[in-house]
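A common beginner's mistake is to predict each chain separately and then try to dock the pieces by hand. The better habit, illustrated here, is to supply every component at once so that their relative placement is modeled jointly.
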Amino acid sequence: MTDDRPSDLAPSTDALEDDPLTKERLRKYRAVVEDGGFPYAYDRTDTASELHARHGNLEPGSETGETVTVAGRLMNTREMGKLAFGVLQDVTGRIQLFVDRRTIGDDGFDEFLELDAGDWVGAEGEVITSKRGELSVRIHTFSLLQKSLRPLPDKWHGLKDVEARSRHRYVDLIANEESRTTALARSRIISELRRQFDQRGYIEVETPVLLGEATGALARPFETHHNALGEDMYLRIATELFLKRLVVGGLEKVYEIGRIFRNEGIDAKHNPEFTMLESYEAFADFDDIMTLVEEVVAACAEKITGGTAITYQGRDLELSGPYPRATMLDLVRKAVGVDIDYDSSLDDLADLARHHGIEPDDHWGSGRFVEALFDELVEDTIWQPTFVTEHPIEISPLSRAHRSKPHVTERFELFIGGAEYANGFSELNDPFDQRERFEAQAAAKSAGDQDAHPIDDDYLLALEYGLPPTGGLGVGVDRLVMLLTDKHHIREVILFPTMRPE
RNA sequence: GGGCCUGUAGCUCCAAUGGCAGAGCAGCGGACUUUUAAUCCGAAGUGUGUGGGUUCGAAUCCCACCAGGCCCA
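With all components supplied together, the output reads:
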């Protein structure tokens, strides 16, 4: 890298010494160290939100007589001569410190005035309200738990720069309430997902990330190398084939919430590493799984927003099921205004595709044409939750053929707000059919199709032992979090999104 | 990969046509016994992403590079 500007946040004693903004903080830090150092722990009795919950309705000027300890980051101080106010922020919220020279004593008061915004502070005192009614702790003593050597971002505008917020997420979390709320919402959504599957009798499992071959989806993998084995290896691009092996093994209902890696571009909806939930349930079909999806999505929405009617990017959405269902072919027919089907001639389909600005590949069958037309004409137009069903066999190499219709599978994708949120199907469990599908994929690949699945021989062996009828599901967890937190960009729901190294 | 755009103080932002680089917050000193982005007074300070080029003179124009954003593929 030729750009060798000194990093503004790189740790350097010299830099801290030279910068007038940090020099005083460093002096105070060293004074504490020389005086015995910072505490190793602090005994907190209450969080900010616990105090607000317990004393939310006090009259202005109340004194509870209740002594508590609180701890958090000091965000701001307001000095008033013989009084001072501090704002302490912990993970649950904020609580005001009320500092009265008569209560804390002259020494304590002067020490409090030495604190800087950003310092970690523990304080003990009485729960009161100020004359304006602000719930406060009128402190008797306090302890500087750790000095902050760096100034905080603007206390009103926070930290706005997208790059700085992503690279230095800790600063973003300190300064921006919204970022904290989103991080907590993500945690709650993942907890709720676990709860939903656990209570349905699913077993949470972990399957390998590091593989000899990346199978189960269409995506470029990250490559790595195992030194002791002397083998090139790949990071997983899906968990699908391993989870179905477990159903073969008799675990019957399994799910995994795991990190998936795809060596592809970064944009508003894609991060190279992202979180996917996959589940497989023996004796269920795609219809059962659609119902499951409706219930799980609605449950997560209620957990986060308190209801199923949400606003996403300024538009209303209703997430309670059942969601309307429409076949991919019917949606495409409606969009193009031509009564095509999977037996239509490839020449006619190619003309139709070109008419809509799609340049077909030579190896496309009717299924690929329908998919391309769907992507081009329909996908963006779906706003309310909708199950798109019956994807063509050609583009669904792991889905079971439809029980009564030719050319298509028992598959669905859930679209909301123009984006895909879930994908599921009745799982293909016929080992012969699966082998043919894999071989068709291999043929397509050697014919120049980049988007073709690799063959997984051990998976075929597993199918020969017998996969019961099974319904499977994949859900993009990051996107679900985006939906429920009204975020446009995936980096807003991933604490440390992938970035070019600085 | 293509197009457009951005990068100025710790943070948020100004700086017509090229002409002494500014403010608010933060920080520093002071006043203030109920503040809520406290307020008031005072002093000071620091910066044009990196490297070149054009020019008497560049934050501004040109080139390359670095990082990022938006849109498209």
